[in-house]
Design a protein that fits this description.
With 355 residues, the chain is mainly beta. It has a domain of 141 residues: YVTN repeat-like/Quinoprotein amine dehydrogenase (Methylamine Dehydrogenase, Chain H, 7 Propeller). It contains one helix and 28 strands. A four-stranded antiparallel β-sheet has the order 3-2-1-28. A four-stranded antiparallel β-sheet has the order 4-5-6-7, with no helix packed on it. It has a four-stranded antiparallel β-sheet with strand order 8-9-10-11, with no helix packed on it.
């Protein structure tokens, strides 16, 4: 066989192997500086390397992004005083084609989520203090908001920070009202408020983001102001708090604002981000009683870890460091869940990571 033919065959096999080991990672950003919108990187699931940075869509302040369940469409908030929500079609090359944009009906939308059937989207408006619900059409486009839930009171300002669907329930974390809300879908496909305080928060905790086990028997809320994680267990139709655990290392006394939280795929470990201490707090989780025990505070090798994510296979953890303009990659220890820093890559103002 001729040498050039052998080389071509080797390169083809290498390219095929690389493609098999590569998955896309999309990055939401703030665009007040060098960023232009939503970016895309290739992530190697064997090595953890990030390569081939491209601009997937030009859009203002896409600070949170989410897939449709079939991953044919993507949705982004446009975090501004007069906020909007945009829908995109994902092309074969991984670029995003805008479908439509609708009002968020509140200022500074900072989070979105889609239900499992891909028919509803919830947008959380931080400065607007409300949650807007949308119907999703078959072509991935969004209707105008079908419902808007205003949490503001005359003497108490709401900062709705995140909302997630679980079956026919919509859970909401409201940092401003220091409360967790629960909405239930009724027979008309609309949602109605069931409980405005279904988890009892400690004073001035500031619930920001939350995660729950696959069966939603346990919920874990990360609190921005208190730098704690509130763990709650389902009891009947409500949740009973089982613990409030600090995210900070012993002796850390400077300012800290917690941000994001995620469970490992096997639900044995829990991770939370500290902005200020600039760490990921790692917890071991008891699968029976839901209690958590902190085992590590791992430096994020950057500044202000607003959001982080686990790779689809659960082997890596990636952190978006907003103020240092980099994404850090960590290897997750299979046995104890601890993190080992591998490398990082520069990208302007990353604030949301989506595999």
């Amino acid at each position: 066989m001729k040498p050039l033919l052998v080389l071509a065959l080797v390169m083809t096999l290498y390219s095929c192997n690389e493609n098999q080991n590569t998955v896309p990672l999309y990055i939401g950003t703030y665009t007040s500086g060098d960023s232009e919108g939503i970016y895309k990187l290739n992530f190697n699931t064997e090595t953890g390397m990030l390569t081939n940075l491209t601009l997937a869509a030009t859009i203002g302040n896409p600070s949170f992004i989410a897939y449709s369940p079939n991953q044919k469409y993507m949705y982004a908030v446009n975090e501004a005083d007069h906020g909007t929500v945009s829908s995109f079609r994902i092309t074969e090359t991984g670029h995003l084609t805008l479908i439509n944009t609708v009002k968020s009906f509140g200022g500074a939308p900072c989070h979105i989520s889609v239900n499992d059937s891909g028919t509803k989207l919830a947008a959380s408006n931080y400065s607007g203090g409300n949650i807007a619900l949308y119907d999703i059409n078959e072509d991935g486009s969004l209707t105008e908001a079908s419902q808007v839930f205003d949490h503001n009171l005359p003497n108490e300002k709401s900062h709705a920070h995140s909302a997630q669907f679980f079956k026919d329930v919509l859970f909401v974390a409201d940092l401003g009202r220091n409360a967790m809300y629960k909405y239930i879908k009724n027979d008309t496909d609309a949602y109605t408020l069931k409980d405005s305080s279904f988890i009892k928060m400690t004073p001035n905790a500031g619930p920001r983001h939350f995660t729950f086990t696959k069966n939603a028997d346990f919920i874990y809320v990360i609190n921005e102001y208190a730098s704690t994680i509130t763990a709650a267990k389902k009891t009947g139709n409500t949740y009973e708090v089982i613990s409030n655990t600090s995210t900070l290392a012993d002796g850390f006394t400077d300012r800290n604002d917690c941000a994001d939280i995620h469970l490992s795929n096997n639900e044995e470990f829990l991770y939370g981000s500290n902005r200020g201490e600039n760490t990921i707090a790692v917890f071991r989780r008891d699968l029976i009683n839901g209690n958590i025990t902190k085992i590590q505070n791992a430096s994020v090798h950057g500044n202000w870890p607003r959001n982080f994510t686990l790779s689809p296979d659960g082997k890596f953890l990636l952190v978006a460091n907003q103020k240092s303009d980099n994404i850090s990659v960590f290897k997750i220890n299979d046995n104890d869940g601890t993190l080992s820093f591998l490398h990082d890559i520069n990208i302007p103002t990353p604030v949301c990571l989506l595999f």
